[in-house]
Write a structure and sequence with these properties.
This protein is mostly helical and about 180 residues long.
Length: about 180
């Protein structure tokens, strides 16, 4: 093998190792970042995202405890959904069984929603008005970016402007 060919192979190996190390580092960073926020239930991650690290750490014990209570309800909901899917895929479709499975899914969903809303209310009661504003702004921006088939956010009013549920910085909340 010539010296020139050895140099080319060496450079290929160096570039390949560099690219692999870059991807391993990226995946590791993502994993560590996800691990830090995974303690928050799915329904709370959007709130936690907008908090400062110190504020996040202050709420994390409560949210971890809430997650332990909420997780079984989510699992029940997923099991009920799988049951519905399996019954709908069966041949022939057993309509009474499917309707019963849908009823169980609704019940599981309502239990999850009720507890989720209670937990969200509990966390929001501990946030400052500015923190709540940032959380609502995030949801409003998600609504903007997902209009036309995405998740619902505050819709446009009759003038085409976005309806705001929370006042902007420096504004007073309207008395309703």
């Amino acid at each position: 093998m010539s010296l020139n060919r050895k140099n080319v192979l060496l450079w290929i190996v160096v570039v390949s190792v560099s690219i692999n190390l870059f991807f391993v580092g990226t995946l590791t960073a993502r994993y560590l970042e996800m691990r830090n926020t995974s303690a928050a239930p799915v329904n709370m991650r959007w709130v936690m995202r907008n908090l400062e690290p110190a504020e996040r750490e202050q709420l994390l014990p409560q949210i971890r405890a809430q997650n332990q209570v909420l997780r079984p309800l989510r699992m029940d909901m997923f099991r009920a959904q799988r049951e519905v899917n399996q019954l709908l895929a069966a041949d022939p479709v057993d309509q009474p069984a499917v309707l019963e499975a849908f009823a169980r899914l609704r019940e599981a969903n309502l239990r999850y929603q009720q507890l989720s809303h209670e937990q969200l209310t509990s966390v929001f009661a501990q946030l400052t008005p500015m923190q709540r504003q940032r959380a609502f702004r995030f949801m409003s921006e998600r609504g903007d970016s997902m209009e036309g088939g995405g998740r619902p956010g505050p819709g446009p009013d009759r003038h085409g402007d976005r309806v705001r549920d929370m006042p902007r910085d420096g504004e007073r909340a309207p008395n309703l």
